[in-house]
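Here is the promised in-class demo. Please do not try to memorize the tokens; focus on the logic of going from shape to residues.
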């Protein structure tokens, strides 16, 4: 991928997302940095500009679908096309109590999945406009920690467990990836998902009470390879474990389950 590209990375003011934008920064690159903290955002923007990239910070709390809509609107105002969308923002609270977003959805599902679903769908016109000699790319930063979605209790109001909530949200992300790959012209936009690495040394992992054991640098390299690597210019509808193609949990490949999730997601996000 050439340097003359516009890229949005959600959750890019710290952790894996920050390492990704730092790895992408080069003269001619335009990077849209997203986060909740304006001071951290300004710090990241300055760092990217020192590398010669053009950078803009966009603030939004993806625990709110209205803020996800506002973020999409801000991206539309900032640029006429988008070459890469990396949905990286997310939470993992395995031992905490069940929490709900301002929209009354279970928090993992709301932030990790519904916000990225809504943002991606609203940015598709910009991504299609980004297609040139090669298609635009969508990358969902998912996880190997996957739990099948219980369509009788998607919000896990019964028998809640944080690991299960997190796993459901990541399965939903990967399902959306396959849906996008099937619906979009691969000459215009490709979509893929990956597990970047296990227990990387990030604030999210430490805050979850887990001792870090994975490399953030290796995780960022895997994301960048999928988002900008020459080997993946036409790859679409795949799930990767790091740099290697892998199989997600079986429900991901169930067309009926994906149909059910798609309808539910559009209703929840107001796109129905």
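The designed amino acids, position by position:
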């Amino acid at each position: 991928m050439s340097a003359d590209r516009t890229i949005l990375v959600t959750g890019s003011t710290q952790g894996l997302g920050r390492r990704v934008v730092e790895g992408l920064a080069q003269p001619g690159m335009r990077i849209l940095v997203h986060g909740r903290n304006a001071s951290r955002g300004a710090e990241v923007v300055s760092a990217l500009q020192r590398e010669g990239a053009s950078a803009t910070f966009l603030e939004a709390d993806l625990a709110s679908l209205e803020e996800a809509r506002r973020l999409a609107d801000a991206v539309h105002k900032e640029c006429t096309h988008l070459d890469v969308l990396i949905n990286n923002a997310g939470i993992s609270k395995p031992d905490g109590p069940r929490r709900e977003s301002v929209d009354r959805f279970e928090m993992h599902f709301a932030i990790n999945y519904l916000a990225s679903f809504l943002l991606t769908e609203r940015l598709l016109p910009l991504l299609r406009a980004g297609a040139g000699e090669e298609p635009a790319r969508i990358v969902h930063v998912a996880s190997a920690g996957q739990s099948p979605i219980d369509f009788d209790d998607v919000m896990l109001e019964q028998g809640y467990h944080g690991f299960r909530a997190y796993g459901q949200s990541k399965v939903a992300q990967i399902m959306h990836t396959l849906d996008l790959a099937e619906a979009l012209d691969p000459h215009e936009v490709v979509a893929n998902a990956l597990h970047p690495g296990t227990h990387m040394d990030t604030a999210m992992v430490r805050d979850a009470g887990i001792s870090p054991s994975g490399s953030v640098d290796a995780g960022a390299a895997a994301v960048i390879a999928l988002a900008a690597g020459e080997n993946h210019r036409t790859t679409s509808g795949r799930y990767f474990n790091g740099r290697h193609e892998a199989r997600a949990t079986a429900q991901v490949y169930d067309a009926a389950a994906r149909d059910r999730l798609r309808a539910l997601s559009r209703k929840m996000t107001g796109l129905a």
